[in-house]
Design a protein that fits this description.
The protein has about 140 residues and is α+β, with helices and mostly antiparallel strands. It contains four helices and seven strands; from the N terminus they run ααααβββββββ. Helices cover about 40% and strands about 35% of the residues. β2 and β3 form a beta hairpin. The radius of gyration is 15 Å and the shape is globular.
């Protein structure tokens, strides 16, 4: 198993008891990590309902790109997740997560590990748009 797959499975295990919306969050987080690694602004922006919601992700991508770096492994590991509210196509999730081991790679291929973090508790809002979950805020 490759490294990202291990983190994805661990995250999925943490999300599954919270229900399908928590599992959807894991899928979005995996797509986000792939878009960051690929430097794909369009794919990263498409994960969000509005450009304002995606501004932070795009700023992270642009900040690393401006220094000639790409980010690999920026998957969030969901440790706990539960639906706290619903309103139409919106759902609020109470999530405890942490960043999986992440590295930045420069143009010469040199890899540097980013600092690890402690678990963080946050509220994530997802919205279903045309049958697909998107980040709607946090």
């Amino acid at each position: 198993m490759t490294g990202w797959l291990i983190w994805w499975v661990l995250s999925l295990l943490g999300a599954r008891p919270g229900g399908p919306e928590c599992v959807a969050l894991v899928g979005l987080d995996a797509q986000r990590a792939e878009a960051l690694a690929a430097g794909d602004r369009e794919a990263l922006g498409a994960l969000h309902v509005s450009p304002d919601d995606g501004a932070v992700d795009l700023a992270v991508l642009d900040g690393y790109a401006a220094r000639g770096l790409t980010v690999h492994g920026a998957m969030l590991i969901v440790l706990e997740c539960a639906v706290s509210a619903r309103d139409g196509d919106l759902v609020w999730l109470e999530v405890t997560d942490r960043l999986a081991p992440t590295v930045v790679v420069d143009a010469a291929g040199e890899r540097r590990a980013l600092p690890t973090d402690e678990p963080t508790r946050r509220t994530v809002v997802l919205q279903q748009v045309d049958g697909t979950w998107r980040y709607a805020g946090s």
